[in-house]
């Protein structure tokens, strides 16, 4: 009997131990899951460093180039995690794309844009922010570029962590400026260029928001508030698709195809006009066919805007990959050139292996860390549907065209997020106006109180303030961080 009791005790003890192990396994899985993304990112960064060391060859500067490749890969990961959300967030927030579909499309088109149309010549001093002849030696120039790379990557990483979409272009500009001041003093900075960039902080989001709001007003007045919405959509959707096609053709010609074909603004506009008219004609029968059997309500309109929105998101990603990959690999290319030639110049060619690091880094960053910012831009600032998201995407392309015509350096991040804010504030103003009109038509006892009307906000003020604050401090924060890192690198390794 005692043996039987002993066996039962042993079984109970074993059950308790197995139960503890199952809890331990569950806990281990829970703890390790957040480490999967950083783990894969670390492997990619290490591979980038090893590839750089292998392809650069065995010289006295091999370790420096390998280290620069590591930080270039780190920067590319952060661009994918933060910047790409601006292109995909509206489409995901409008439910035109799933998160997985958005990541897949963005990864393909970002990489294609970077590898096929990424600029083969990049300004190593980031659009003339620092005058190259003001830097004393090649060694100081290398450490300045390294400091700019590290500081801009750290800043974008911090912004992603707190959930703020910031401009990676401005982060790199701030990094280069801070390192240039630390290396050669205030006189080394091209202050008129910095003034133009500072102006773009205000101009680009306001312009993007205004254009997005204008198109939303057009869609509301010409389609949504019409008695026969479907008949109105059959007329206006092909026109809007034609405008989108023309705008994106011009946008890609100006910003995304520099490596393939370098054309001016007038030629780009003519090409865009031709493509826009062609797409308008082609879309007329397609829209009519798709509108057959649709009910006369707003929900039916979403079907007609879904595909144009997906196409616009893909085109934005292609142009972004072509235009912004230099933010990740520009300083790296400068370091590679200076290490190879023993001297530095204002412009250098980007080696293909450097471009590959940038392209794959952006895709990995998007896949591993992008969903957080995609959700924030797509659904947490204001509620988007396909029509509103379409207005955001269209405003991004048109704003870049106008900025190119005016000669203003603009940020795709500021334009896209400004478009989201523009749509949200326009809806807020429009809802307030309609509420006031309906309230005035009611008896005094049934009217909505002004306090209640003010409470019904359609844009989250906490996100608005976080984003604006992050935009304002991006350049000075990246500059300060870069200056400190440069002084440390120069003191320890210089």
From TrEMBL:
A GO BP term here is: phosphate ion transmembrane transport
Provide GO CC annotations from the record.
Answer: membrane
Q: Which PANTHER family match?
A: PHOSPHATE TRANSPORTER
Which is an annotated Pfam family here? Answer: PHO4
The UniProt entry's sequence similarity note says:
Belongs to the inorganic phosphate transporter (PiT) (TC 2.A.20) family.
Record protein name field:
Phosphate transporter
Alphabetized UniProt keyword annotations: Membrane, Phosphate transport, Transmembrane, Transmembrane helix, Transport
Q: What is the lineage of its organism?
A: Bacteria, Pseudomonadati, Pseudomonadota, Alphaproteobacteria, Rhodobacterales
Transmembrane region positions?
35-56, 63-81, 140-160, 172-191, 197-219, 231-254, 260-282, 303-322, 348-369, 389-406, 412-429, 464-489
Compartments reported by the entry: Membrane
> What's the chief localization of this chain?
membrane
Signal peptide positions (record)? none
Q: Tell me the superkingdom of the source.
A: Bacteria
Q: Which GO terms describe its molecular function?
A: phosphate transmembrane transporter activity
What is this entry's stated membrane topology? Multi-pass membrane protein
Entry annotated with the keyword Transmembrane helix: yes
Instruction: Please report the organism this UniProt entry assigns to the protein.
Output: Salinihabitans flavidus
InterPro entries with a match to the protein in the record: Phos_transporter
């Amino acid at each position: 009997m005692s043996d039987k009791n002993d066996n039962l005790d042993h079984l109970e003890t074993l059950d308790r131990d197995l139960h503890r192990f199952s809890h331990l396994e569950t806990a281990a899985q829970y703890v390790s899951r957040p480490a999967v993304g950083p783990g894969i990112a670390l492997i990619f960064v290490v591979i980038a460093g090893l590839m750089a060391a292998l392809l650069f060859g065995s010289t006295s500067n091999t370790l420096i180039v390998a280290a620069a490749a590591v930080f270039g890969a780190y920067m590319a990961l952060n661009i994918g995690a933060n910047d790409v959300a601006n292109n995909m967030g509206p489409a995901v927030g409008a439910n035109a794309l799933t998160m997985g579909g958005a990541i897949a499309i963005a990864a393909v088109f970002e990489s294609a844009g970077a590898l096929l149309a990424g600029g083969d010549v990049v300004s190593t001093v980031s659009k003339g922010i620092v005058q190259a002849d003001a830097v004393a030696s090649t060694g100081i120039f290398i450490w300045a570029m390294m400091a700019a790379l590290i500081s801009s990557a750290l800043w974008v990483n911090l912004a992603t962590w707190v959930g703020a979409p910031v401009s990676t272009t401005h982060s790199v500009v701030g990094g280069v400026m801070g390192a240039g001041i630390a290396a050669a003093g205030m006189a080394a900075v091209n202050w008129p260029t910095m003034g133009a960039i500072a102006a773009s902080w205000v101009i680009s989001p306001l312009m993007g928001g205004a254009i997005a709001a204008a198109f939303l007003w057009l869609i509301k007045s010409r389609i949504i508030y019409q008695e026969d919405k479907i008949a109105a959509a059959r007329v206006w959707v092909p026109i809007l698709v034609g405008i989108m096609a023309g705008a994106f053709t011009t946008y890609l010609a100006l910003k995304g195809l520099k490596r393939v074909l370098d054309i001016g603004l007038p030629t780009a506009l003519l090409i865009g006009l031709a493509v826009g008219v062609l797409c308008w004609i082609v879309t007329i029968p397609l829209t009519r066919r798709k509108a057959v059997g649709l009910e006369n309500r707003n929900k039916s309109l979403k079907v007609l805007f879904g595909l144009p929105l997906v196409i616009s998101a893909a085109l934005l990603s292609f142009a972004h990959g072509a235009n912004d990959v230099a933010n990740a690999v520009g300083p790296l290319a400068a370091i590679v050139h200076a290490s190879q030639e023993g001297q530095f110049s204002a412009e250098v060619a980007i080696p293909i292996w450097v471009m590959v690091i940038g392209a794959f880094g952006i895709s990995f960053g998007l896949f591993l860390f992008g969903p957080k910012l995609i959700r924030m831009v797509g659904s947490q600032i204001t509620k988007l549907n396909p029509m509103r998201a379409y207005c955001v995407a269209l405003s991004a392309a048109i704003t870049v065209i106008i900025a190119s015509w005016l000669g203003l350096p603009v940020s795709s991040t500021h334009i896209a997020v400004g478009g989201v804010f523009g749509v949200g504030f326009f809806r807020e103003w429009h809802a307030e106006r309609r509420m006031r009109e309906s309230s005035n038509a009611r008896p005094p006892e049934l009217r909505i109180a002004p306090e209640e009307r003010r409470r019904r906000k359609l844009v989250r003020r906490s996100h608005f303030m976080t984003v604006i604050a992050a935009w304002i401090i991006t350049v000075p924060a990246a500059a300060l961080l870069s200056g400190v890192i440069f002084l440390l690198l120069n003191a320890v390794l210089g």
